[in-house]
Structure formats: structure tokens, C-alpha cells
Design brief:
- The chain is of the alpha+beta class.
- It folds into two domains: 1-56, 2,3-Dihydroxybiphenyl 1,2-Dioxygenase, domain 1 (Roll); 70-125, 2,3-Dihydroxybiphenyl 1,2-Dioxygenase, domain 1 (Roll), CATH 3.10.180.10.
- Helices cover 18% and strands 38% of the residues.
- It has helices spanning 15-26, 82-91; strands spanning 6-11, 29-34, 38-43, 46-51, 74-78, 95-96, 101-102, 106-112, 118-124.
- The strands form two sheets. Strands 5, 6, 7, 8 and 9 form a five-stranded mixed sheet that branches. It has a four-stranded mixed sheet with strand order 1-4-3-2, covered by helices on one side.
- The chain is globular, with a radius of gyration of 15 Å.
């Protein structure tokens, strides 16, 4: 494994659906497939670990709480033409939490994966 890679784990409802989403729409490559429990996809230096409730990462915590997908944490993918990328993804039936907003550093929008996890699509100024 590349020691310069960034590893992020997302809890997902369905590993196969998650793999299809990240490879088909966002250009990730499948590197490990242990579905239905776990898979890993990679894009550049980002290794995304997709774990279901049947994986070791899905086990209950000592207090009984269970890891679940969703929330507000996210990783960011950078695009040169955010409007074109969003239009393409919307035409393919993907869903967003908001519309493109612009701030002091650039423009962003939140894409929702099949389990409710967020991916920030960003275009710097």
C-alpha cells in the first residue's frame, strides 16, 4: 500500500451499489472486493474503504451504538468546470443535497451517494 495515500472509510448500506456509484460516476477504480461486507476503490491518492454492517467496521461499539452512513463529513473532489460536471451527473439521475454555492475560495455542491454519504464537488477560484 502507498504510504502517501489518504484512506477514508464510509459506511454504506450496500457495497455493490456503492462500488458501482464511485466507479461509474466519479472515476474510481475497484481495488478490493469482499462484498457484501467490504470493498476498496481508489482515485489518485485517495483510497475509499466502503464498509457495510457485516464488516468489522460495522460492529457495535461498547455502548451499543452502530456505525451508520450519512452525516456531514465528506471528502472533496476538485473540478475545472463544476457547472458542467453537475449538469452531467444530474442528467444521469444523481442527487445533490443543495445547489452550487460560491464562497471566498470557490464554488461547491454536495453530491449524495446511494447510502446518504456526501461528496463535495469543488471548483477553486
Amino acid at each position: 500500500m502507498d504510504t502517501n495515500s489518504v484512506n477514508i472509510r464510509y459506511m454504506v448500506e450496500n457495497v455493490d451499489n456503492a462500488v458501482q456509484f464511485y466507479t461509474q460516476y466519479l472515476g474510481f477504480t475497484l481495488t478490493t472486493n469482499a462484498a457484501p461486507a467490504f470493498a476498496a476503490v481508489i482515485k489518485g491518492n485517495l483510497r475509499l474503504l466502503l464498509s457495510s454492517r457485516t464488516s468489522s467496521a460495522g460492529k457495535a461499539m461498547p455502548d451499543g451504538s452502530l456505525p451508520v452512513p450519512g452525516g456531514w463529513n465528506r471528502f472533496q473532489l476538485i473540478f475545472d468546470d463544476l457547472e458542467a460536471e453537475v449538469a452531467k451527473l444530474k442528467s444521469q439521475g444523481l442527487h445533490f443535497r443543495n445547489e452550487i454555492i460560491t464562497g471566498p475560495g470557490g464554488s461547491q455542491i454536495l453530491l449524495i451517494d446511494p447510502s446518504g454519504n456526501l461528496i463535495e464537488l469543488f471548483q477553486p477560484i
